[in-house]
Structures are given as C-alpha cells and as structure tokens.
Design goal:
- Helix 1 packs parallel to helix 3, helix 2 crosses helix 6 and helix 7 packs across helix 8.
- By secondary structure, the protein is α+β, with helices and mostly antiparallel strands.
- It has two domains: 125 residues, no CATH class; 178 residues, no CATH class.
Length: 306
C-alpha cells in the first residue's frame, strides 16, 4: 500500500478527466449498493495498479467522490473531499486512498482493496451491518484513521461518551419498550451495567459477535437512534436469550469506543471456533463473526472476519 501511483502525462489525463466529467453528470441520492460497487471497483483498480500510468485509480476516486457526496445515508462529505483532492492530484498511494475512504469502508463493511461488499440480507438503502464497532484486524491494517460516523438523517441529541448511570429510571410503553429516546438510552446503559460481570468473565476469549450499533448508524434501511438500538438488542436476545450487551469503550480490543455491541455468551479459545458457531447457527458473515473481548489486547488481531 506504500506504492506510489502516478498519472498519464497531461494530455492523456485531460482526455480521461473529460470522459469522467461526461459520465459523472448524474444527480440525486445514491444507495449503498451504488456506493459500494464503485468502492469495490476502486479497490480492484488499486490492487492491480502498477505505479505510473494508472489513471483508472484517479478517475475511480473522482467517481467515488461524487457518489459519497450524494450517498443517501449522509456523513461522507469528509471522504468525498479527500477523494476529490486525490482525483485532482498527480500522484497518490494506497494508504492515502485507504485514509480517504475510511467512512465509506465503514458503510461497505471492509477496507479499500480488502474483501468485497456483502449485500446478503440488506436492502439497498442500508449501511454496513458489520458488528465490529471498528475494523479490528481486517487485513492487518487495524484503525487507519480519518473516519467520522455517518450522521443521523433526523435531528436528535448526539450520543455522549458512555458513563454508567444509576440515577435515571427509564420510562416504558405499555409493551415494555422505552417510550422515548432518553429512556431508551438509560435502558441501554442499565443493560450494559447488568451484563458487565458476565462480559468481563469472557475476557481474552473469542465470542460470536451478533451486532454493533451506534447512534446515527445507517444499516439495513434503518437510521439507528437509541430506541432502534434497544430494539436490535432485544431482537437478538429473543433469538439468543443469553446474549449480552456491552459498550465498546469499556474494552481495548475495539477500535471505536462508541458502539453498543451484542455478543453471544458462549466463548471459545479461538476465532475459528467462534465463527464455526456462527455457521452452525446459519447466521451470515455480516451478522455474526468472531471477536476477542479484552481489557488489555489492542484492536489488531482481535477480529476474525468470515
């Protein structure tokens, strides 16, 4: 990824950019599939680049910049600006492109050039359902920086850093679900506090991770607020009554510290065994994979994708 990638000479570059300009005239919002298809194409171009005369990388960056700016889930303007800068430059590198696409990588579920996007079980308007709370050890790159969580499509209060709260009594509806956002947030906090001892008992063991959601995440056609995150947890617990909820900020094995994460309570000595559990339960790779729970192990090497 340190290889320097350069353009054709100026005349050929002008021709390429002119063609891109004609192709890139579309307007209006784009869905996850359109965004991630171009993201995967750019990754393929990057991996097959041979240094000088690799204009496909620059035109692909320009196309992806346009799609990121129009992504209906929002939150990708930083990536769009960075990609536009690369598209206008004379040279770039694999690491620069990975840094420029870190938000898009979160939506698509894998870093640039490492793996491909899964669309199984998702609708075209959704975002990534990777339950990692960060990339962990995808391809050995860990957290390569530059990411900003997609912002919610509806106005609400941002999620603060989690602090255990024993003073708020959640309000619930007749069906037992939290009746408002403040109550849902308090309910999530109480569940984390309730489950903490059991989660800590899984320390330095591999578990099947079933879900991770943070405030404003767009996934499977849903923009997640606190009530939606609570509903996601209870849905998983309905299928797996012993499932546990944790806050990623409490554990050093997570790249990002602002995710509500649901894990199965069954632990294993290896990631392969945890992934075998996912397969046996007929859960797809976006909704179940192996995660190491630890207070001392860093993110690198703590995730084993399927």
């Amino acid at each position: 990824m340190k290889q320097l990638i350069s353009r054709w000479p100026a005349l050929a570059t002008a021709v390429v950019i002119g063609l891109v300009g004609v192709a890139g005239c579309a307007t209006g919002p784009v869905d996850r599939k359109a965004l991630c298809t171009q993201f995967d194409e750019l990754g393929n171009d990057l991996m097959s680049a041979h240094g000088f005369f690799d204009n496909s990388v620059f035109s692909g960056a320009d196309d992806l910049s346009d799609l990121a700016r129009r992504y209906q889930g929002g939150g990708l303007s930083q990536d769009a600006d960075a990609l536009a800068g690369i598209a206008d430059s004379d040279s770039t590198s694999g690491m620069a492109l990975m840094n420029a696409t870190s938000g898009i990588a979160e939506v698509c579920g894998h870093p640039l050039g490492i793996g491909t996007t899964s669309y199984a079980g998702t609708n075209s308007g959704g975002g990534s359902t990777r339950a990692d709370g960060g990339y962990g050890s995808y391809g050995g790159y860990g957290n390569y920086g530059g990411y900003s969580t997609p912002t919610p499509s509806t106005a609400s209060v941002p999620d603060p850093t989690y602090v255990p709260d024993t003073t708020t009594s959640p309000a619930t509806s007749a069906g037992g679900a939290p009746s408002d956002e403040a109550s849902a947030q308090a309910t999530l906090r109480q569940q984390v506090d309730t489950d903490r001892a059991q989660v800590d008992a899984l320390g330095d063991r591999w578990v099947p991770q079933l879900s991770s959601k943070n405030y404003g995440l767009v996934a499977d056609g849903t923009t997640y607020d606190y009530r939606a995150i609570w509903a996601d947890f209870t849905s998983n617990r309905h299928s797996y009554p012993s499932a546990l909820l944790l806050w990623s900020g409490d554990y050093t094995s997570y790249t990002k510290g602002d995710f509500w994460v649901t894990v199965a309570s069954t632990s294993f000595g290896s990631g392969a065994e945890a992934n075998a559990w996912c397969v046996a339960e007929h859960l797809d790779a976006d909704h179940c994979f192996a995660k190491l729970i630890s207070h001392s192990h860093g993110p690198k090497g703590s995730t084993l994708p399927r």
